Structures are given as C-alpha cells and as structure tokens.
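Notebook B, p. 112. Complex prediction, attempt 2.
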Amino acid sequence: MAEVRAEMTANVWKVLVAPGDTVSDGDTLVILESMKMEIPVIAEEDGTVSEVKVAEGDTINEDDVIAVIS
Amino acid sequence: MFESLLVANRGEIARRIIATANGMGIRTIAVYSEADADLPFVREADEAVLLGPAAPAQSYLDVDAVLAAAKQTGAQAVHPGYGFLSENADFAEAVTAAGLTWVGPSPDAMRSMGDKIAARNRMAAAGVPVAPGTPDPVPDAQAALAAAHEIGYPVMVKAAAGGGGIGMSAAFNDEELTAAYETARTRAERFFSDPAILLEKYVPSARHIEVQILGLADGTVVALGERDCSVQRRHQKVAEESPSPAVTPEIRAAIMDAAVKAGEAVGYRNAGTVEMLFDTATGDAWFLEMNTRLQVEHPVTEAVTGLDLVAEQLRIAAGEAPSFDAANVPTASGHAIELRIYAEDPKRFLPGPGAITEWVEPTGDGVRVDAGYESGNTVTPFYDPLLAKLIVHGSNRQEALAMARAAVEGFTIVGPKNNLPFFTELLANDEFVRGDYDTGLISRMRG
C-alpha cells in the first residue's frame, strides 16, 4: 500500500481516478494547481486505487494524503 | 495630473506603483482579495477596497468589482500593473467609459497586439522583421503538419492569445508536433478562452531580447534601450539584464529602430515592450510580440536610464510631456541585473507557498528590492510565485555581478521555498558570468 502525498500547498484542479481504478506506474492521478502552474500527481507503482482523499476545488497542504494505492 | 489613482493589481507591482504615485502627491487606492489583506501594498495605499475571495476571477479579474471600487473611492485614474486585467482591452474601454483615465495604451492598440497572429501580420506589413510562421490560425493537427513542412522543423507551437509561456512548446518532428498542437489547443482554451494556434520557426540557440518603448502624449514613440531576458525556465523569465551582453551598437540601432516602427504602426501611447527573438547563430532579430503594459522587469531599464517609468506612464496618461527631452533620450549608463525571487524550490522550480517567518532584504548603494511581502505574511497558492525582485546597478557588468552575489547572500527568506540558492548557482555559472548564454541556459544547468 502506498500513500501519495502532496509536495506543496495547492488547489485540486482535476481528479482523474476513482476508488477501484487500476493504475500503472506513471499514470496521472490528480492535477494540482499552485501559483498558476499545473502539477500532475503521478502514480509511482502499479496497483489499484483504494482511496481518493481529495475532491476538485479542495485546497490541500504539503504532505496531505491525496490518494492511496494498494 | 489627476489627483487620485486606483491600482488594479497586487503584490510587488501594486506596491511599486503606489510608491511612485504617493511621491507625486497622488491619492492612491489599492484593491485586494481576502487572501491578500495583510500584504504591504494594502497598507501603503491611502485607501484600500476589498474586491472579494482569493480566486482571481472573483477578485483581481472581476471588472465590475474593480470599477465599483473606483466609483466608491472617487478614483480618477486606473493603473493595471502587469498580468490580470492589464492587457484586457474591454477593461480599458470600460475604465474610459466610466469617465476615468486609463494608464496604458488605447484599447485598439491593445487589441491589435493581443492576438499574436494579427500582430505578426501587422508588424510584417510595417517593415518589422518577423520569424517565418503561419499568417492564419492553424485549425487542426493536419494543417499544423502541413505548415511545419513548409516552415521547416523545428517549429514553435503557441497560443495566439497566450502569454507567460502557457501552452508553448517546440516540436522537432511530426509526432512531437501532433502532441504539442493538442496540448497548446487545450491550454489555450482553458487559460485564454481562445483556441487559435500559430506556428513559428523555432530557433535552437536564441536570446530573448526586448525593447522598452514609450509612446509619448504628443504621439512620438521613443525606445529606451534593451533588456536581455534569456534566463528562463518553462519559457518564463528568471533574470534580466541591461544592456544585453550580446547586442553590439549596430544590432542595438537596428532593434531600437524596429521597436519604434512597431509602436508607430499601432499609434502606441504609454509604456510598452517589443519582444524580439535574437538568433545567436545568425545575429537575426525577429519580432515576437508586444506587451502593451508595464513589464515585470522594467526596473533594469530604470536603473540604467535613471528614469521612473511609472512616473512617465502617469505623465503620459495625463497628457503631459515626459521628464526627459524626447529628442535626446537617455541611454544606458552602467549595467543592471534583476533577479526574480520566486516562491519555488531551487532545483525543480516547483511552487512552494507558505508562511514567511523571516524576511531580511539586502541594502546598499545600487541595490533595489521591489518586494510584495514581508515577515509575517503568508504566500498563498492563488497567484504567481513572484515574491520580490532584486535589482543591482553597477558601473559595468562585472561590478553588477559582484553586487548581485553579495545581495543574494544578504537576502534571507525563511518559510516558503525560494530560489535564492539558484541565483547563487547562476551567478557562479561560467556561461552566465561570460555573458555568452541563451534561453537554454537553465536546462543545461539542470540537465
């Protein structure tokens, strides 16, 4: 199981996966937006999305959990 | 001169405009979002009006809210700064229709330069050199491929309504072009609500050199020297200098002439910047675009010319003569370098907002800091990452480099991530120190 965490304070622009989705290493899970820049959050392993902890429009802080992959 | 000025912007540029206007005895009005209530520019204006929530669309981009603030405070003029509404011709028109003075060019001049395709065509017709490219919007990927074969790879794909490097990328073959075209189109729609795309010849080793112009109240257009803005990451400027180490007196004469022609072709008034692409291999300088507003990096020009460009803007907007003799325009004295201090990590340049617990600015002769923040402020994720601009002015480039190194050492920011360590690297980089660099410099440093 791997938790995917935010690298910075940001707004959640797009959520591209839902619980139950199968993802591969390198897939984009969520796109954040901070300081006029889009920042894709990428899966770093193959697996199944077990939890998505953010919704579009949320403001998140550095180190917040974005999703869990198992 | 008008007696009051509303500054429709935030951060360092709002503060910088307010300082000049206050110094001229003009009553200043700041507008701000909920996220910015504690920033220095709000306090330093004579009055401040809350526009709305943090999101730009509900605050700094809300035309009705800005105009209501002007009416409520009895403002006589509006300065838009850069970004936000500064290049929005409809806003300029609305300001004028409300009986206020717009500190900027005419809406017509803004429109003719706002679309990069129309601007290219108009400049070419006026005898300003433009890079080979498409004279009409490219409707689909198939048409992009056909155009690229005519221009010859590599090509640059750009949003016609774009800015800030958003949606821009270079393509070296058909496959890259197909991907670049789709990306540019999606971003152009999202950020600029206009999907029009153009292709231009891509120059592998280029410098970004721009000319500051002023269209004076009497119609004369003058050029105030160049700025070299080739230190870029993600097609966005990080450091600028004037004069450019790459520009000879002959090239300077040619690009000043091209910039004046560009301004005259659209009847330009007020401050503007003509951006040129300089091919280091051939020495060609091509018109890229014109920014119809005050530029972020205007302080390097102020340092070497001794002018206050905001004061000149206000004079022009009020129909007054400039502070200098237009027949004998000030030329560069010494050398100036500007470093953009961003809230981003110094390795990958990813945004790093956060609360500022310590903020100490360098001081000294020839050192200027235009800061949007101070200790105790929080840098939020809602706006661009510019924290401050550090400008040094020395008697020559070598002295300016030494001053910049000392000033970076003397700058302390604790809290948000920041790129000060990057500047320590840049100021020790052999290419930068020699002055022999191009827009690929940062990629090479990080390669």
